[in-house]
Amino acid sequence: MFDRYEGGELAVLVHVFFSQEKDTENLAEFESLVTSAGVKPVQIVTGSRKSPHPKYYVGEGKAEEIAEAVQASGADVVLFNHTLTPAQERNLERLCECKVVDRTGVILDIFAQRARTHEGKLQVELAQLRHMSTRLVRGWTHLERQKGGIGLRGPGETQLETDRRLLRVKISQILSRLSRVEKQREQGRQARNKADIPTISLVGYTNAGKSSLFNRMTASDVYAADQLFATLDPTLRRIDVDDVGTVVLADTVGFIRNLPHDLVAAFKATLQETREATLLLHVIDAADSRLDENIRAVESVLEEIEADEIPTLLVMNKVDMLEEFVPRIDRNEDNKPVRVWLSAQTGDGIPLLLQALTERLSGEIAHVEIRLPPNEGRLRSRFYQLNAIEREWLEEDGSIGLEVRMPMVDWCRLCKQEQQLPSYVI
Prior knowledge:
single chain, alpha/beta, Rossmann fold, 3 domains, disordered N terminus, guanosine tetraphosphate binding, GTPase_HflX
């Protein structure tokens, strides 16, 4: 009764324009979403309104037009490029005599198809259950009241109340399992922090080319395709960056305009990799006509997951689709790289990205040589506790030479605590 619609079904798409300028790109993106879900659009119904209709979202005349389109095309489902209330879905289903699914339902369906790992499947199930809990009444309209008659009178739950309770129990169980997964991830992050290994997280609008870039930089074979939400489960790989050393690169789920809040909440454990990153690589499709809107959509999600304060390097991808464009690094007034233009598909500009990473990350890392007097064994042991010593040697005068590499934040903190430390720098 609450099953997802199956791939290969025929669908009527519905999109309503709420402004004078018709946002056809938004509709084109929705068509891509529907195709990614394995559904074939057979007809598109569009309309214009100043505000949604409370009963059908569209006007009554347009709702009749949708019902006629369903009958004429033999469609199995009506897909709305908007968020519908449970009542609107129910009213439309009665009128059209077929399933009606809104934008959130379509995105959830794609996520359910793409989830591969145990964690990903749990997160999708959590988002689906939360979405379903608001729509339970759709399936049990005939059982909203308690049954009467001999043997059935008296206190008890309605079928609807029973289902809501079962859903709450199920959601609680999934949250508990996701909490354990989150703790495991946290242990991994703490181990990397202890070893002073920086983490770079790839973020960006869906289908911007994050997985292609990830594969190019790590020589991996993570699934990458020209479709929305090709990546759902996070993947981590180690790479070496000049003058920085080992770095962990994380490929994450893509963002999208009007990403359902339930999904952001459900994927909190996955997005934690983004929140704890040393540097974010914001991958942008440079050939997309809606480039600025896509950037704003990603920044909105980053703000929602409290990752908007993390240092960010913009990666303008797909320059091979622009005419006569040469890969380059854009810098700010401090000569710090802020934007790299490249093509993950062809590999042009990847060396420039690695150069930019060296400059950005080495700026966050202190790499110094110090000479400690023989009586500073305590300070030497502190560097060992911080796992910061790369090389050690003995000077002729008995002093100890150390080559130290550590996060700039830790170095500044240590210099403040040990005020004589700067005088030992060679």
